[in-house]
Design brief:
Helix content: over 70%
Order of helices and strands: HHHHHHHHH
Strand content: under 5%
Number of helices: 9
Shape: globular
Radius of gyration: 20 Å
Oligomer: single chain
Largest sheet: none
């Protein structure tokens, strides 16, 4: 088994566990509940969920999607979120980690690990925020605001160890630029952009700017492109009026991940086309 495959499988397994936790987050955070207490319980009979019934995906399959105590149905969303988060983490590990030139010295290796952890945090936060925004049209401060601190600490520590301060500077500039841009949109046309979107924009700008200017521009543009295409589909199928408003947070997150995963390549290809023309 290659190092790459082992690392991707490890990240995927971690993602399954985090996905199980995110199911708690998306249920409790919008309700203003603690994510740690009380322990998880069946919403039907309130019986505490045993540890062996809380294994990602496997427990849901073993229980056939029903509570062990009262046989109430357990939403299929639980294993879907777990599997999706596991796959997402595996993808991030495969793309973000520098597999072509894995650092061998201690400081650069730890710096690369800190960068990977930062992007795994963003991946987990993205899953939770997308689900919450779709269901509640909210981007909770309890998830968004700590992401600023997490990003600055992890990416800042990575820069300190690797000496790549330009990446951190780009990240801070990207954070400020996207925040101000979305704030301007929210102020110019009230209602078109929520302040939850404004705060999320700064978070995404930090991570995208850290990677590069191309990733930042592509990630910011992709959000509007994807959101616009989705709106056109709704209008074409005459479903726009039944949506009760289209949350933009999921498209901001999707666009940002387009920037993370392929933004550098897309930006370089575009610049190459311009130079040829």
């Amino acid at each position: 088994m290659t190092v790459l495959l082992l690392a991707v499988l490890t990240a995927g397994g971690l993602g399954l566990l985090i996905g199980s936790f995110l199911n708690v987050v998306v249920h409790r955070v919008p309700a203003g509940m603690s994510i740690s207490t009380p322990p998880s319980a069946c919403p039907g009979c309130h019986a505490p969920i045993k540890a062996y019934d809380n294994v990602p995906v496997i427990s849901w399959l073993a229980l056939k999607g029903r509570c062990r105590s009262c046989s109430s149905p357990i939403s299929v969303r639980y294993p879907i979120v777990e599997v999706a988060t596991g796959g997402f983490f595996a993808l991030v590990a495969a793309v973000v980690w520098p597999w072509t030139a894995v650092p061998t010295e201690a400081a650069p290796l730890v710096a690369a690990l800190l960068e990977l952890v930062a992007f795994l945090w963003l991946a987990g936060a993205s899953v939770a925020l997308a689900i919450i925004d779709v269901e509640h049209h909210r981007l909770p401060d309890a998830i968004v605001l700590p992401s600023y601190a997490v990003g600055l600490v992890l990416l800042g520590a990575s820069s300190a160890l690797s000496g790549e301060w330009d990446a951190l500077l780009r990240g801070v500039v990207g954070m400020a630029a996207l925040f101000v841009f979305y704030l301007a949109l929210a102020l110019v046309k009230p209602g078109a952009m929520g302040f939850g979107d404004v705060k999320l924009a700064g978070v995404l700008g930090l991570w995208l700017g850290w990677l590069g200017w191309g990733e930042l521009v592509v990630g910011a543009f992709a959000a509007f492109l994807l959101g616009g295409l989705f709106s056109i589909v709704l209008l074409a199928t005459r479903r726009a009026q039944r949506t009760g408003g289209i949350p933009f947070g999921p498209w901001m997150l999707a666009g940002a991940w387009v920037g993370v995963l392929v933004g550098g390549t897309v930006a370089a290809s575009y610049l190459q086309l311009l130079s040829v023309a």
